[in-house]
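Batch manifest, entry 17 of 40.
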Amino acid sequence: MSKSIESAAANGRITLVGAGPGDADLLTLRAIKRLQAADVVLYDDLAGEGFMAYLDPNAEMVAVGKRAGHPSPRQDEVSRLAISYALRGKHVVRLKAGDPTLFARADEELRAAREAGIAVEIVPGITTATAAAATIGASLTKRGVARRVQFVTGHDVDGRLPRDLDLAALADATATTCVYMGKATFPALVAQLIARGLSAATPAVMVESLGSEATNVQRGSVSELAARLTADRPAGPCMILYGAALEEG
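Output type: structure tokens
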């Protein structure tokens, strides 16, 4: 590496910032400070638009969002773009919906930045699961009922239900399970879980388009939600929660 590139790499940096569920009111103070100091913001499709109010007028904004079923840049392209800006001495904010460390491929971006000699920081955000619980006014844990919370993705690289899920753990209704990116595969997941002992009547909640004016909440049992998703899949992104802790009353 030349001295000029070494100098740029030393001065440039990348910050992975969690945007939360898309409502600017839920950005952390540190997230706002990093946005205010950003030269370039590479932002996700689901990060909302409220963050733009905190940017320097001269900051460059680049949309790099990824959403299932829509054309989007490859992960390696996003990483290379962030690194290219940082190597020019820029402070790059990589704004990710939710929390950067949960199903956001932060590991790949961290590795790429470190291999390029770029300083990298993580600013946590409110993950969609806890934001969904707040939206419905529920606790993910409940004394004597649910002592465990588990996060799982319902979407593998091929768009199907991951084949290596711990189905025994996911069939435990005494845990509250939070399914990210699962609206297309939840019916298949429920069928497998019921076969492993999960009651079809286990309480479940689906929150669509969380953090936006289009937020929609649907309640029911796991079997009822699976049937609804089979008949009519929502257009917006969905967070699905299920478990005994979600019993109303």
